[in-house]
Amino acid sequence: MLIENQAPDIVYYALLGFGPEEGEQFLSIQLDTGSSDFWEKQSSTTFNLKDLVVEEQEFGLVDFVTNDFEPHPYDKQLDQSQFAFWLGRDADHGTNPERIGSDIFWSDLAPNNNGQWRVPIDDLLVNGTIRISRT
């Protein structure tokens, strides 16, 4: 299993390897675009996802987590709760017709989302190699 969809287009898990190749430990980790942090119960200096190996990766130890979804002064400043994103490395903004493969569509958030943005994903390609698809 490289990437597994365990809920109807809401939760995806990836089997990630931690540690040196000869002693690598594989864990099923939830893929979370709603966080800038990567959470894993242990610590490691080598990170492995299939053929991708990141050495000297820093991990921090956490023993307390606050509620990130407390009300903020900037909440509810827009007329509608909308956003769009493109998973790219460029600092450019706006739309790029070369990157959009279809018309832009609107998707309601999942009910009882606990403050998370949950939208369906029909297809995903990472660096031209890893593909998640309904077909």
Q: Topology of this protein?
A:
Elements: E1 3-5, E2 12-18, E3 25-30, E4 46-49, E5 52-55, E6 123-126, E7 130-133
Antiparallel strand pairs: 1-2, 2-3, 2-4, 4-5, 6-7
Protein name: Aspartic peptidase domain-containing protein
Organism: Rhizophagus clarus
* Unreliably modeled segments: none
Strand content: 15-25%
Mean pLDDT: 65
Please tell me how large the radius of gyration is.
18 Å
**Major sheet, described briefly?**
5 strands, antiparallel
SSE series: EEEEEEE
End-to-end separation? 17 Å
Count of beta strands: 7
Estimated helix fraction: under 10%
Count up the helices: 0
Structural class: mainly beta
* Dominant shape: extended
Note the main attributes of this structure:
7 strands; Peptidase_aspartic_dom_sf; two-stranded antiparallel ribbon; Aspartic peptidase domain-containing protein; 135 residues; five-stranded antiparallel sheet; extended; mainly beta
Explain this structure to me?
The protein is extended. 0% of the residues lie in helices and 24% in strands. β1 and β2 form a beta hairpin. It has strands at residues 3-5, 12-18, 25-30, 46-49, 52-55, 123-126, 130-133. With 135 residues, it is mainly beta. The strands form two sheets. Strands 1, 2, 3, 4 and 5 form a five-stranded antiparallel sheet that branches. It comes from Rhizophagus clarus. This is Aspartic peptidase domain-containing protein. InterPro entries: Peptidase_aspartic_dom_sf.
